[in-house]
Amino acid sequence: MKIKNKIYNALINPFFLVSAILFFLYSIVQFFFLQNFFSSNSTDLHYFFKAIPYAGAFLFPVLTISQKPLFYEPKSDLKLLIELWLVQFLQYLVILIPLISVPLCVSLFGSVDSGTVFTSFLMLILYGSCLISLCILIQVLIPSHAISFIVSAVIILVLNILHIFSIYSLNKFYNFLIKIFSFSWHFDAAGKGIFDSRDFFYYAGCTVLFILLSNLCIQIKKGKNYSQKEKITLILVSIIFIFGFADSSKLYLRKDLSKNQRNTVSKYSKNLLTSLESPLKITYYRSSSLTHLYPQVRDIADYLKEYCSEKNVIFTLEDADKKDNATLLQNYGIYSHQLQSYGNNKTELISVFSAIVLEYQESWQVIPFILSSDSLEYDLTTRLLKLITDKNRIVNILCGNNLTVEKDYNYLVPWLNNQGFVCNIIDLFSDKEITEQFDKTSNLLLILGNSQLQTKHCKQIEELILAGVNVFAQVSQYSSDIEQTWNITKNQNNDFITLLENYGFYFTENLSADLSCARIVMESNQNEAGAYIDSTYTQNINYPLWINLMPQKNIPNGITLFWPVALESTNEKVKPVLFTSNYSWTLEPDKYSPDSLFTTNPFHTEQIQTKNTERKVLKVGLELNGELNSYYSEQKRNNARILVIPDQYFINSLMLGYIGGQYGDYRNLDYTVNSLLRLNGESELAELQEKSGYTQANTMYKISSEDSFKNARITTLIINFIFIPCLIIAIFIVLQILRKKHIKELCRE
Predict the structure, then answer these.
(1) CA 285 to CA 266: how far, in whole Å?
(2) Residue 80 — pLDDT band, cuts 50, 70, 90?
(3) 106 contacts 38 by C-beta, under 8 angstroms
(4) HSE toward the beta carbon, residue 286, CA cutoff 13 A
(5) Strand pairing report for 444-448 and 584-587
(6) Is there a contact between 669 and 412 (Cβ–Cβ < 8 Å)?
(7) Do residues 723 and 730 lie in contact, with contact meaning Cβ atoms separated by under 8 Å?
(8) What count of other Cβ atoms lies within 10 Å of the Cβ of residue 693?
C-alpha cells in the first residue's frame, strides 16, 4: 500500500477523529478552566504547553493501536516501521494544529510571546515524535492491543510526572535517570523561549533509537539474523546517543528566541565586561544533588558561560559538596539552604548550595543562593558595578505617615537589599533633623506617606531637594483604615502636599476608579442583600478603587494602585508618566461624612460604578525633571527630579498580600526599584532590572472594561469549544464523502 494511501486511511479512521477532539478538548479545558485563565490576569502559556503531554498518555497509544504494521508487504521491516512512524507522526501534527487557536485567543487579552510559542510547539513536536516511536516499540514487544495500550499509557504518564519523584529520592543514580527521561527537564528551556540543541537531539536520538530497537525485536521474533550493517548502525546510534548526552554540556547551541531576550546577555553588560582592567573570576558553587531536583539550575550554568564569554572573564563550576569548598564558602559568608526531600516513609531535609562568587582584583561579591536565571544578569551586573566602583547604592527611606518601615513596609528593605541597594532608614521622630540623618553619599530619598510631615520636616526635605537629592514620593492627602473598615479620611496635616503643589503637582479631591482593576476575594458574614448568615460568604469582586494599571511605556509589567486620587500638572516641566485606562472615572468626596469620605466597601461596588460618570484617561503618576523654585526661600537649583504617585500604600505589605494571590504580586516593589535606579541616573541598569523583573509580564492589558472582557471571553469559548470541534468533524465528514465518491468511481470502472 502506498504511503499516501496509508496517511489518507489514517485520517479518516474514527479513532483519529475521536482522539483529535478529545485531545483538543482536554487541552483547552485544562488551560482555560482548571488553570483559571480568565481570572489569572496573565497571558503566560508556559503551563498550557507543559500540560499538553498529559493528554499524550491517551493519544499516542491510540494512534499506535489504530495502525498495524503489515510485515508481509514486500518491503524491509525497517522501512515498514519508518512508514508506520511517519503515518502516526503526521496524524499527531494534524492534531496539534488546532491548538494554535489557544495562543491566538489569548492574544485577544494581552501580549503573547511568539518566540516562546514557537519553541514550545517545536518541543511538543519532538516529544511526540519520540513517544510515537516508543509506543511502536511497545506494540512490537506486546502484540496484544489492550495490554500494549495500558503499558504505553502508564509509561508516558510516568515520564510526564517523573520530575516530581526527584524530591523523593536522594539516590544519585535514580535522580540521574529521572533527569534523562523526565519531560519537564527537557521542556524547561523551550518553555522560556530558548532553543537548546541538547533537547532537540535528545528527542531526535530517542526517536531513531526506538525505531532501530523495534526493528531488532522484529528480527529476533522472526528468527532472522541481524545483518552486519544493521548491527553497526544500531551500535553507532546508541554510542552517539549515550556519549552525545553525556558530553552535551561542552558542545551545544542555545538560542534565546523570547520576546524580551531575558536569557541573552545585554549590550550594556558586555560593554562593562570588556572595560575591565583586570581579569574577573566568576565561580558557581553548586551541590550535585541540586542538579537532580531543579532543571532550572542548568540554565544558571549555561547563562554564566555566556556571560563569561569575554576573554578577560574566567568561569568555573565547582562542586559545593567537596570538603575543600565547605570552609571556603563559609569564609565568603555563604551557607547551605535546606530543601525537603521525601523517602523511606519520612521527610528529610537536604542541605544544598547554589551560590555565585565574583572576584575582581582584591575584592569579591556573592550571590548567596539562586535557583533560577530569571534575574541573573541584573544580579551579576549590579555586583560587578560594586566591584569596579567600590561604591554602595544607598537609598534613604522616610516613613512620613503613622506606619513604620519595619512593621508595615517589611518587604521593602529585603527587596531593595536583594536588588543591590543599601537602605538608610530616617526616623521622623528622632531628635536629629532629617538632613542630619540623611546619608550624604546618596542622592535618593523615598518618602512613604505624608500625614506626619510637619512644616519643619518639609523645609528639611526641600533643603535636600535643592541640594540635588532626587525624590520618589508615594503620598496622598487621604488615609485609609487599611486593617479594618477601609474608611477614607482626609489627613489633618497636608503640608508636604502643599509643597509638591508649589512645584506643579496638583492633587485633586476626587478619588480615581477604573474598570481595569484588582480582582480580590472578600469574606463576610452577610450576603449580597446585607442579611446575616451562619456561614462565611465568599465572593470574587472586581474592585474599581484598586486600579490595575495596564502595561505602558514606564510600566511594561503593570502595577496596582490603592485608592489613588487623580493628579494634574500646573507646571509644564511636570510630565505625566502613569495613566489609567480609557474607562476610568472619579468619585467626589462626601464632605458631610468626614469619617468616611468615599464608599469603599467592596460589596457595594454598584455605588462606586456610577454609570452616568464620564469615562476618561486619568493621570496617576507625575515627574518633574528640571529647575525648582523653593517654596520656603528664594533659592533655585537645577536638575533635581521628583517622581510622585498618589498612593501611600503602594508597597505596604498588607496591601500587597491582598492582591498577591497564590504566587504573590511584587510588581509594585519591582517598579519602586526601577524608579529609584532611573532617578539615580542608572537607566541602562534599570532596563536590566525591568527585563528580569516580574515573571508574569504578560498581563491582560488589552482588557479595558468589563464589556471587552466578556466579548473576548465569549469569542474564546465559541472558537475553542464550538468552531474548532465542528471544523474537525466537518473535515472528517468531507474526507468520508470524498472516499465514498472515489470508491464508487472505482466500482464503475
Answers:
(1) 24
(2) confident
(3) no
(4) 23
(5) unpaired
(6) yes
(7) no
(8) 23
Q: Please name the residues in contact with 464: beta carbons below 8 A apart, sequence gap of 6 or more.
A: 434, 435, 438, 445, 471
The Cα-based distances of 573 to 355, 530, 624, 674 in angstroms read 46, 49, 6, 22
How does pLDDT run across 534-578, given as a tens digit for each residue?
Answer: 666 667 788 999 999 988 888 888 899 999 999 999 998 899 999
Between CA 605 and CA 545 the distance in angstroms is 9
Residue 398 identity: L
DSSP string computed for 418-459: HTTEEEEEE-TTSSS-HHHHS-TT--EEEEE--TT--HHHHH
**What single DSSP character describes residue 258?**
S
- The residue behind cell 442579611 is 531
pTM for this predicted structure: 0.72
Strand partners, 574: 624
Of 532, 511, 518, 559, residue with least CA distance to 669? 559
From first CA to last CA, the distance across the chain in angstroms is 20
The whole-angstrom separation of Cα 593 and Cα 485 is 15
DSSP string covering 678-699: HHTT-HHHHHHHHHTS-S---B
Q: What is the pLDDT of residue 62?
A: 87
600: which residues sit within 8 A by CB, 6+ positions away? Answer: 480, 486, 487, 488, 545, 563
Give the mean pLDDT of 71-94. 80
What's the CA gap between 367 and 690, in Å, rounded?
A: 19
Beta strands in 430-564 (DSSP E): 444-448, 470-474, 478-480, 488-490, 505-514, 517-526, 532-549, 559-562
- In degrees, rounded to 5, the angle at the alpha carbon of residue 534 between the alpha carbons of residues 531 and 536 is 85
Contact criterion met (CB below 8 Å) for 448 and 409: yes
Burial zone of 324 (CB within 10 Å; 0-12 exposed, 13-18 middle, 19+ buried): exposed
Question: How many residues are there in the chain?
Answer: 749
Closest CA to 475 of 457, 495, 503: 495
Tens digits of per-residue pLDDT, 596-634? Answer: 999 888 877 666 766 667 889 999 999 998 766 665 565
